[in-house]
Design brief:
Length: 67
């Protein structure tokens, strides 16, 4: 996978924990969604990609404001 930001192939995969918070004042009343994911990090520019597992994605979708 090429890096979208800098076109570098210098990337590595790490295990990560991501805490996703809902935006705005209303987000303060919503629980944080914790995600354990594989992070693919460009070691040149820092761009990071990961996939949110389906169970956590459902939590985000249920609590997210309508677009």
């Amino acid at each position: 996978m090429d890096r979208k930001q800098c076109d570098s192939h210098n990337q590595s995969t790490f295990n990560g924990e991501v805490a996703i918070h809902f935006p705005g004042r209303n987000g303060l009343d919503k629980p944080t969604v914790f995600v354990l994911a594989k992070l693919v990090i460009c070691l040149q520019c820092g761009l990071t990609e990961f996939t949110v597992p389906e169970s956590e994605l459902r939590l985000l979708a249920q609590k997210a404001p309508a677009a």
